[in-house]
Amino acid sequence: MKAWHISLTGVFLMISATTGSIASEKHTMPGYTEGAEVVQIKTRRDQIDSVGDVVYEQIKNTRSVRQLHMSVLVPRNDDLKPAIIYFPGGGFTTAERDKFIEMRMALAEAGFVVAAAEYRTIPDVFPAPVVDAKAAVRYLRQHAVEYGVDPKRIGVLGDSAGGWLAQMLGTTNGDKSFDKGDFLNQSSDVQAVATLYGISDLRDIGEGFPETVQQVHRSPAATEALLVNGAAFRNFAGASITDSPQKALAASPIGHLNGHKPPFLIMHGSKDSLVSPEQSAKLYKALRSGGNSADYVIVEGAEHGDNHWFQPAVINRVVDWFRQVLGSPQKMSNKPVKDLNANL
């Protein structure tokens, strides 16, 4: 009983000494004053640099020069990082690159360099968007050292029309006919494709929808018709997507499925009323029948681009898939990390 009393007393003395030590450390902290709260923070995440308005391509003719931009999120460390290029949707009429920040930040926090690239839309016609997207991939490879990118691990992500564009990049790996512009010594091939409610076949975007919707897609004014055939002008009265099925197929990912393809993650909402879920089902079945790797996820109850797509469950699914396919950042040297913005 006496020994137990001595041991407990020793514990009390240790606690008292530790508490006194912490109090003593507080009083020696620069700026400390009585009543200040002292907290300890463990650093578990890197800073992320945001580099906006990067010009990745210039479209030149004899009358003007048009610059195309990307925004880049770069984790501030010396890791060799896989990269993702995000292509925004917009019905082939807009390409607002700075949206979907929730997804882009989640990817950056997971260690990816994340570029978001605009591209030419209507009234420009196919293959302009694909030419631009491949230029964005080449630009990132050309500047891989600057951004800490592993040029062997570049994936693409897109939603809706941007999903169509991401699919086109994956299905046309190795096709040099779309490579135009700068940095042609760099490959435009990609190693992974994630497509959210994307378009795989321009010939029947409304497959399975009511007849009134089908009529819209048969109109010469439908955006897919404008993308493939252009707008009515002079002696050209315009053409429906069904008037030129071979051109439409050539402008569709489903028309470029020969040969090996990179891994695909295909996601679509079960209640999408703008782009038929059959678009994703068709692509998935075609890829798998060709012996390619493809994952297909149906988000129950999700509409086209609604709030379902901004939830952690969806975002984490995409991040985890890219991490699985492309791998994690690789630790390099212990050199001091420089501020990327200071060099721009």
Descriptive keywords:
10 helices; 344 residues; eight-stranded mixed sheet; 2 domains; disordered N terminus; disordered C terminus; alpha/beta; globular; Rossmann fold
For the terminal residues, how far apart are their CA atoms? Answer: 73 Å
Largest sheet: 8 strands, mixed
What name goes with the CATH superfamily of the largest domain?
Answer: Alpha/Beta hydrolase fold, catalytic domain
Rg over CA atoms:
26 Å
Total strand segments: 8
Molecular shape: globular
Give unreliable regions as ranges: 1-22, 340-344
Integer tally of domains: 2
N-to-C SSE string, H for helix and E for strand: HEEEHEHHEHEHHHEHEH
User: Helix/strand-derived class?
Assistant: alpha/beta
Query: How much of the residues is beta strand, in percent?
Result: 15-25%
CATH topology of the largest domain: Rossmann fold
CATH architecture of the largest domain: 3-Layer(aba) Sandwich
Widest sheet, order of strands: 1-2-4-3-5-6-7-8
Helix content: 25-40%
Q: Which CATH class of the largest domain?
A: Alpha Beta
